[in-house]
Each structure stands twice: as C-alpha cells, then as structure tokens.
Design brief:
By secondary structure, this protein is an alpha+beta fold. Helices cover 37% and strands 19% of the residues. A hairpin with a 2-residue loop joins strand 1 and strand 2. Residues 1-26, 67-72 and 334-346 have low confidence and may be disordered. It binds 2-acetamido-2-deoxy-beta-D-glucopyranose (2 copies). One 2-acetamido-2-deoxy-beta-D-glucopyranose binds at residues 36-37, 40, 94, 98, 103. InterPro entries: Wnt, Wnt8, Wnt_C, Wnt_CS.
C-alpha cells in the first residue's frame, strides 16, 4: 500500500520526490515543513480517486496517472481533469487539517471574522479551519509543477483550482447555542472541513459535468494563441472541470496509454445494499464492452461465534460462507464457472 502510494504520488506530481525536492531546494526553506503534508495529501487524493472510480471502466490506474509534462504524450481528457482536481484538493485539505491540529507554528484557526455578524441570529466565532492557509500553500506546491504556457498547462491549472474550490465549497457550518439555559437566542458558528469523501463525491459530479473546450488545434504558442487560451479559460467558472480531449475507449487494452481494458475486472450484482451506479457495474464494465459476465463461486472460512471463557480464552468456530463474485470475461473462452451472456436489463 505504502509503495503503491509513493509511486502514484510520483506519477501525479511527476515526481514528488524529484519535483517537490527540486522545489524545496530552489524554493524558500520554509516550505520544507509542509512537504510531508503535501505528500500525504496527494496520496489521499489518489486513494479517493480509486474509491470514486472503483466501478467505472476507468478506475484510476497507476500507469494512466502519468501527468508529466516532460513526456511528449500528456493526456488532457476528463479523467486527467479529475486527477488534477482531486490531487490538488487532497493537498489543500491535508495542509488545512494539519494546520488546525497545530502541526505548524505559523498557522492556526481562522478567526478573522470572529465577532462579526454572519447571518440572521448568528455571529462568527470559534475555530474555523484555515482554508485560506491550505489554499495558499497548496497552490504554491501544486501549481508550481505546471511550467508550460500551452492549453494543457492552462487546463491543469484550471482543474487544480477547481479542486481547491471543491474543498472550500463543501465546508460545513457548525454552530453552538448561547442564551439562558441553552435557549439559543444567539449562536456562534465556524466553518469546518467535511470528510474528504464528500470532496471526492462533489468532484465526481463535476467530472460527469466536465466541459470540453476546443483549443488543441489552432492556438499555437504565439502571443495571440496564448491570449486566446487565457481568454477561453477566464470565461469558464473555476468550479467546473475542463478537458480538451475525448477519452479513449476504456473497454479496450491499450499498452501505449497504459490501459488494461475491462476484461478480468470484477463487477457487482446483488447480495449487498448497492447504489444505482454499482448495480449497473456489470453492464457498464462487461456487457457494454462486449464481454460476458462470469460467475465465480468461492468459499471463505473465517472465525465466528466467538465466546469468551473465564479466564482467559476466546474460542471461536470456523464458519464457511459461500460467496459469488462476478467478473468480465471473453464469451468465447469461459474460464470455468457459469457464463451468462449479458442481458439488456441492468
Ligand atoms: C499532516 O498529516 C499527514 C496525514 O494526514 C501526516 O502524514 C503528516 O505527517 C502530518 N503532519 C505534518 C507536520 O506534516
Ligand atoms: C491506443 O491509443 C492511441 C491513442 O489514442 C491510438 O492511436 C491507438 O490506436 C490505440 N491502440 C490500440 C491498440 O487501440
């Protein structure tokens, strides 16, 4: 897990070890104190990406996360947009939370509005999470990795910003009542970070609604071209994700792009409380990609019915449980187990 995280991180920030270290060496010494938060934040972004896309054809694979601007081939599709936004959000989130936890000497609660009227019947008070701090520092780290001036660089910067906006936009107001015996005649309120999962879910919605801008043709590296790029991005809200290219066909394996295709992927059918998106996963991953759904039965053995015996032992029984799992497979070559041709119904 640790190793995967580190290598992912490397891909995302081409390469945290190289680039962040370069930055640390050339940038102000002060930034050294944030580097472990930045690394942890980027990793939590990637873990959230894997969670949000677990039942999608594209499931946030390591190899496709290569966002390096060194390598000539840099993708600029909807998924690239999500990766930038969630990584940037993760870094901002972790910096902000660590600040509230007192990890940094130079930052603490945001009490800049305390005492001011916030709305009907409530005043700002208490300890608001200092997103301003997290925003500024994460911007320094993450945006600094984007050195180009082309449309791809502008897209990445835009999506980094959308990630930071998502953290800000999902913050929760928490209030405390005041007044005689809790009568709540006045309240003081502060802003708290949500669970990071909520930021991920918010960005997943933005991913589905991502806007495509047509800038890859024409707009060259001339001053006029750069002006056109800047104008285009200025006209789009920084709350929205933006992409330049269409996504490749994630059903298919494509070694050049580092894509595995959906053959062999697990999908979900029944037996658990599934959401609509999960319930349709077999159709999305297998059926719609021309693959069959293969059922594999397995038995798991685990400890159960444990009893505590005086004194002092715990004895358990071994329980066997049958589990059925579903995988996408090629219809012609069933690899054991029952093969179902996919129906049209979800
Ligand atoms: C900040 O948080 C992350 C994980 O949430 C942790 O790994 C890191 O060490 C923390 N503290 C500092 C000072 O970076
Ligand atoms: C892989 O993707 C590239 C870029 O989209 C495309 O040109 C190529 O034909 C694809 N290869 C296969 C085997 O599908």
């Amino acid at each position: 897990m640790e190793k995967v995280g580190v290598s992912l991180l490397c891909s995302v920030f081409f390469l945290s070890s190289r680039s962040v270290n370069n930055f640390l060496m050339t940038g102000p010494k002060a930034y050294l104190i944030y580097s472990s938060s930045v690394a942890a934040g980027a990793q939590s972004g990637i873990e959230e990406c894997k969670y949000q896309f677990a039942w999608d054809r594209w499931n946030c694979p390591e190899r496709a996360l290569q966002l390096s601007s060194h390598g000539g081939l840099r993708s600029a599709n909807r998924e690239t947009a999500f990766v930038h936004a969630i990584s940037s959000a993760g870094v901002m989130y972790t910096l902000t939370r660590n600040c509230s936890l007192g990890d940094f000497d130079n930052c603490g609660c945001d009490d800049s509005r305390n005492g001011q009227l916030g709305g009907q019947g409530w005043l700002w008070g208490g300890c608001s999470d200092n997103v301003g701090f997290g925003e500024a520092i994460s911007k320094q780290f993450v945006d600094a990795l984007e050195t180009g001036q082309d449309a791809r660089a502008a897209m990445n910067l835009h999506n980094n910003e959308a990630g930071r906006k998502a953290v800000k936009g999902t913050m929760k107001r928490t209030c405390k009542c005041h007044g005689v015996s809790g009568s709540c005649t006045t309240q003081t309120c502060w802003l708290q970070l949500p669970e990071f999962r909520e930021v991920g879910a918010h960005l997943k919605e933005k991913y589905h609604a991502a806007l495509k801008v047509d800038l890859l043709q024409g707009a060259g590296n001339s001053a006029a071209g750069r002006g056109a790029i800047a104008d285009t991005f200025r006209s789009i809200s920084t709350r929205e994700l933006v992409h330049l290219e269409d996504s490749p066909d994630y059903c298919l394996e494509n070694k050049t792009l580092g894509l595995l295709g959906t053959e062999g992927r697990e999908c979900l059918r029944r037996g658990r409380a599934l959401g609509r998106w999960e319930r349709r996963s077999c159709r999305r991953l297998c059926g719609d990609c021309g693959l069959a759904v293969e059922e594999r039965r397995a038995e798991t053995v685990s400890s159960c019915n444990c009893k505590f015996h005086w004194c002092c032992a715990v004895r358990c029984e071994q329980c066997r449980r049958r589990v059925t799992k579903y995988f996408c497979s090629r219809a012609e070559r069933p690899r054991g187990g029952a093969v179902h041709t996919p129906g049209r119904k979800p």
